[in-house]
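Supplementary Data S3. Sequence and structure tokens for construct A.
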Amino acid sequence: MHKFFTEEMDEQTAYVRGDDHKHLFKVLRLKVGDKVVVNDLKGQDYAGEIQEMDKQWTKISIREKILDTNESPLRVTLFQGLPKAGKMDLIVQKCTELGVMKIVPVDTARVVVKSAQEYKKMDRLKRIALEAAKQSKRSTLPEIVEPISFEDGIKMMADYDVVVVPYENQEDFGFTALKEAVPTAGTMAIFVGPEGGFTEEEIHVLRAAHANIVTLGKRILRTETAGFTAVAMAQLLYGDMGGKK
């Protein structure tokens, strides 16, 4: 069934307006009586049925709460060193599809000053996350926060069961070895550097704060590739990717 996100709902009724209504009406060509799923933007899905349609809105009757969700048991936060313009769009889109719960842009030593200035408005990234959540049928929208300093990111590490830092100069410790060292984890922070990566000093600080410095393989990945590659590996080993054993 098609899923729609809306804040305009109560226990009995939900309304879909704007672009979602246009998509529902003109593209999907849904009609009164069709079954749909509605999400309240707070992480809860509901089974519903289209009750009434107007030029500006679709009214949906709520039938029941859906107890099962598409969310991973592993709650991942991506701390992403600010990349150049446009690359963050792809990072947000793919990490949303992969189940990331929170995305934190980080101003690190090698971030271009112009890049940091481009992240003052977060509305675009939040819209991208919403569209990716619809496409992947997620039940929860990832939280996207304002950029923080590297130092503040270090302070937040204590909130997670395990912290992972992909690093191109790490050679012999990857996600497979991490799984052996840390068999289970409910929360994970993944720190990814910007173009140019982390400095040696930043890696030293991360290591001193008990982060796990890992390799993603022999090939050097771009910053926009490294993040969702690490997330996919984490979801495979600790989350819900790959299906049941």
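Construct B, processed identically:
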Amino acid sequence: METLLSWDLVSVVIMLFLVSTESAADTTKYQKNKSASLGEIVTLVCNNSEMDASYIWKKDTVLIFSHSDTLNKTERRFTSDRMSVDPPTKLTIFNVELHDTGSYSCQITDDQSGVRTMEWNLTITNNLTDHAEHGLRKLLLFTIPSAIGGVVLCITICCIVWLCRKRKQEQTSHCDKHGEVSLNGTQSTKTFAVMLTNNIS
């Protein structure tokens, strides 16, 4: 009796193991990274050739679309009117915006392949901002050296003008001193001649 119970227990464990292995084999997951620019059209496609399948589309674990061929039932819970699923294997997002960034998944269930899940990590980039930042960076790289060069040139010109004026003032002052000496010498000569004339007479 105990032997029969132990064999029953072993067979139950083996069956549970086989069932869990089979269910694990039926679940397949594919992951992809996808990026798009602001305003573009993004299309995500679940490849499936089997008939009588069910499809579940999610964004960040939130259900946005489900369809069952067997039940002929469709449910739409789109988070935006820019989303469309047609046929059930293709999700299209028109004129993508920054808040469309996230994780999108499509789960397909059919009798032949079991459960398969495809997942996309969608990233939306703002090219307008990137271009503006690049343009600003380029402008700064051109403007700053030009401005520094202009300031240095102005300072150099001011220094040259100041030195020229100073030199001219020094030359004028030097000439004035020589003129006074010459004038004083001439006056002394005239005075001496007058005195000499007076003595003779």
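The longest strand covers residues 114-125. The CA atoms of residues 37 and 125 lie 5 Å apart.
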